[in-house]
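Entry:
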Amino acid sequence: MQKQANPLIGISLVAFVPTISILFTLNYNNDELTSQVFFMACKFWLLIAPAYWFLRVEGNVISWSLPNREGLILGAITGIVMSGIIVLMWFLFGDTIDADAMLAEMETTGLTDIRIYVAGMLYWIFLNSLLEEYVFRWFVTTKGLDLLGSEIAAIILSATLFTLHHAIALHYYGFIWWQTIMACFGLLSAAAIWSWLYFRHKSIWVCWLSHAICDVAVFSIGYILIFA
């Protein structure tokens, strides 16, 4: 039997961890070992905390929520369309980005090494995007619904929290204010679409497929920026 639990506490346990991780890692990246350990600790917490809350605090049972064919098709279509918009924005505004500042920040994380970049790309596309869907689309969105009683309000809450740490990362990578605003609008829109997909299909795999396709576009642009 499911237990009544305060969804605000559940959301608070995970929603700001990515932001804390970004702030710590990018502020203290001169100490590579410390920043790496903290980064991994945050990822471990994001994996464990929602599962513990769902299984132990609320008393639910494990469900893999496998997608259906319609969900996978919709996930692929939304991912392809959003990737096209990302590429279009790059062609229109890419030359306004301070590439030197971005490259300088990437050098501190090792991403200007092609081997590390490829490894990071595979991690972010296949693992990190799945973790973000697990945290923000499944856990935060559903707890947001419990807290606010409205799918629209839950989508807005989840999308806003998802965008927060990305906005901070964009600032550290040299984006100026209007570029950050444009990127955040895109992130908010994408996150809202993914939360909507979750409510429609009740499967993070659908959201992950769309998210992963978008990440392919982002890392392809990153490759051109760094190595081409």
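The CA atoms of residues 24 and 222 lie 23 Å apart.
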